[in-house]
Amino acid sequence: MDISTKLLTMLLAILLFVAVVGLMLFIAGRTERRSASIVGYVFLFPSIIMVSVGLLYPAVRTIFQSFFDAAGKAFVGLDNYQTIFTSSDDLLVLRNTVLWVVVTPFVATAIGLLYAILVDGARGEAFAKSLIFLPMAISMVAASIIWKFVYEFRPDQPGVRQIGLLNQVVVWLGGSPQQWIVNSPWNTFFLIVVMIWIQAGFAMTILSAAIKAIPEDIIEAARLDGVTAIGMFRFVTLPSIRPSVIVVLTTIGIGTLKVFDVVRTMTGGNFNTNVVANEFYTQSFRASNQGLGSALAVLLFVLVVPIVVYNVRQLRASEAR
Amino acid sequence: MSTVTPQVDLTPEERAALARKSSSAGRAASIARKKATSPVASAIAVALAVLWTIPTFGLLLSSIRPEKAIKTTGWWTFFSDPQVTLDNYKTVLSTEGASGLGSFFVNSFVITIPAVLIPICLAALAAYAFAWIDFRGRNFLFVLVFALQIVPLQVALLPLLTMYVKAGLGGTFWTLWLSHSAFALPLAIFILHNFMKEIPKELIEAARMDGAGHVKIFFRVMLPLLTPALAAFGIFQFLWVWNDLLVALTFASDNTVVPLTVALANLSGTRGTAWHLLSAGAFISIIVPVAVFISLQRYFVRGLLAGGLKG
């Protein structure tokens, strides 16, 4: 397919879509005189259809499929789930996922918060913030390539020079270069660094907005009481922005739970760095194990729920106060 | 404070003005104090900023160095031995050859534009219905759509792929347009609904009194007021689709529809040491979202604050 054909296809798709929406609006306008509530159904119709067919039905289908074997034919009960929690490969996958979800949100939020406080009210604040925020706008594939280059390893031989920044720094400090993304178990942490690099900007943006919303008189009162900078952070800033901190932690936690791009691009899940989302992709689309793939997808869903429930509860509590 | 300067005979307005003045003086003082006491804080901030920028900078610099230089020396040697070439970009941008990414760049646009337009239009209609039209089952449907936000899209991929193949759509752009639209709808409806609820009720009621129907109100009253919200979500969705790997990897089995992210990931997998191609390729994929981000930063941040992270 050449470029013009592609653009033409795209144009046709958009025109088709516009025609469908136009037809709907026409129907809505016609039926409106009889009953206003019908318009509601007409407006909702395409969204409900798309969400039902594209999200709701497949989700139910996946839950169903997770109780069947690799080919999706024979009922196997909870065997797939048993595999996830007993096979040594999958236990490693679970361990890594726990590491990701525990480390990433806290470190990214801590760095984001620290930076937000440091640059608050400083000259060039907007520019300083966009430097940290920029990784958030690019794809995780590009971010992974950027970091793979930082971690690049060249054998420690005379005449061979390091081209990765991290190894060069190690060499400058008198150490010997390491294969950062190959050597287990620390390689998982070097992958997590990439996610922290991406998410810190998100944490900073939200927390910075929360810090600026703290009423001036509270800060003033604390200052008149002679509170130190650290005391100010502990007793004024942190309690005031607590709801935002929880939102940031849980949001990054959910995003990290589903991390796929970074692991796939950097190691492909090799060298003991595999995580649930990558194993889901491998089982579903590479190993053609529908049952296990579905069970892993359901596991992701099940793990997201408690985080969301906690988040909603905390929000309710802070609103009630 | 009142013990120091007894404020008698002041109207509330004057008092408020005074308070504002003293608080702005307080802020100025606090900034001054911060500047005076925190060279350490500034140093940490600068160190973090450098740490966050230098990985990207290193790759950007590498992308304009000759292949041989990239592979034998670190990018920092550029400062002692500057060699500049555009060959990497020429190779990567060509639509010919195994390492040309040009056609994938086009694919990314072809995928992204409808995948942004379709959900925005549909979500705006649905959000209007939820916000301003009374009909039976409204609350139930709204809770349903709201709850679907938390469903990880992983649970939908396998059955969707089967459905597409059965419908004869396998490997076409349609799989990506439809999937991205469906996945975006719950969040889009939620965000736009929140914005619409903030529009004063009187405005809608006055229009209804004048005999305007919902279709007319939607176009004449809502859409103009909603432009910032639509822009915020539009940018959010644009970046999401442009940067997506998982959905494209699942459905774009045919090389003619593969977007840049997948092509780049494949290049990184098969030619992981071809840094002259990877660096230039990564930059071509970065340039579009970064341009969008820089030019529309305000909307982007607003969308982020409203919707958090999707996926």
Oligomer: heterodimer
Sheet/helix structural class of chain A: mainly alpha
Radius of gyration of chain A: 25 Å
Global mean pLDDT of chain B: 84
Derived structural class of chain B = mainly alpha
What is the element string of chain A, with H for helices and E for strands? HHHHHHHHHHHHH
Largest sheet of chain A: none
The best one-word shape of chain A is globular
- Using DSSP, what is the number of strands of chain A? 0
At CATH's second level, what is the architecture of the domain at 102-307 in chain B?
Answer: Orthogonal Bundle
Radius of gyration of chain B: 27 Å
Largest sheet of chain B: none
- Helices and strands of chain B, in order, run as HHHHHHHHHHHHHH
CATH class of the domain at 102-307 in chain B: Mainly Alpha
Low-confidence stretches of chain A are: none
Number of helices of chain B: 14
* DSSP strand content of chain A: under 5%
CATH architecture of the largest domain in chain A: Orthogonal Bundle
Quote the beta fraction of chain B.
under 5%
Question: Greatest chain-chain interface?
Answer: A-B, 115 and 117 residues
- The CATH class of the largest domain in chain A is identified as Mainly Alpha
Brief characterization of the structure:
Chain A has 321 residues and is mostly helical. Chain A contains 13 helices and no strands. Chain A has helices spanning 3-32, 36-65, 79-86, 88-119, 125-137, 140-151, 165-172, 186-212, 216-224, 229-257, 261-266, 276-286, 290-320.
